[in-house]
Amino acid sequence: MSDRVSISIDANGVADVRLNRPDKMNACDPAMFAALDAAGREVASNPSVRAVVLSGEGRAFCAGLDMASFGKMAEPRESGGGSKSADSGSDGGLLNASESSAANFAQRSAWVWTEVPVPVIAAVHGVAFGAGIQIALAADIRIIAPDARMSVMEIKWGLIPDVTGTQTLRRLVRLDVAKELTFSGRIVPGTEAVELGLATQLSDTPREAAFELAREIAARSPDAIRAGKRLLNQSVRVSEEEGLRLEASIQTTLIGGKNQIEAVRANLEKRSPAFSDPES
Q: 28 with 64: CB under 8 angstroms?
């Protein structure tokens, strides 16, 4: 794993994933984008992981794109028109499309957390600007410090949010709110972030609160938790008819399974359940 992101997994199956560039307030450069994507894929492939806490070391969750990258964006494009090459254009080569996904290189750093099969809880402190807020929005739950600040800041640089924010933001807040934040780039404090729907709840100690919730989730049936995330993620993409069919279909796969039976027995016997890792 790159030194840009650290991963540790405790005995409860809670993965502690941390952006680890504190001297730059965890700003995103190509190495950070790649490390976040790799970290997401690593925890997604581990059947023992029951929940993920995503946070940033140092003074901030993530300050956005590294300023050196903005310097490259200020350089004029080469004349000649046509489509962008892999190494040209306003993105400085950072945003080339992945061969295996509709998401490009930068987008993968955020979108991968929606694809992790277990709940991802972002613990936000300091700032989450630009790419930083978009990475946080890709988590399932966001716990934020009251004095933390969030901003869809790309408009400051003459850009639009392009690290999956256009997909995640509109699913969390009203469309007019998403537009106002995108058009203005204004900075939103943690308290307002919860009111708007950008964050889930406030905590003076967001990382500690995130781990408390993650351990609670990790104690539940991993089959049901994974099924719940899959079902709810799909619910915003399919029709009501398709959603109801998927709900019934997934429930059928859970009933009578080893972990579902263990959940029933543990409740009846008034003991802690001993769940098995999901089968790959």
A: yes
